[in-house]
Amino acid sequence: MNPYRLLNITPEATPREIVQASALALRENKHSARDIAEARKQLMSPATKFILDFVHTVDLEPLLDDIRKGLGELEEREESEIVDLVTMIDLEGLDIFDKQV
To answer: pTM here?
Structure first.
């Protein structure tokens, strides 16, 4: 759960803006009260907010959308096409099978 997205605020939001966004989110009833309370609690704690600022700095949703799209395209291909694609990839040059763990 991304508390910034849940409360529709930026990492630069002040504590007052976090409280206001929490109240608005509760009124809009788009998320559970528990999720909203958890997001508010996380963002009001300086230590937790510091970690969240680091973790949620990069928006991965566009990347995830591309991955989902790619997986959907793979599912549409016939199994034989996928096998042909896999056999075309030369894995011998990667040395990943020779290394011991």
So the answer is: 0.57
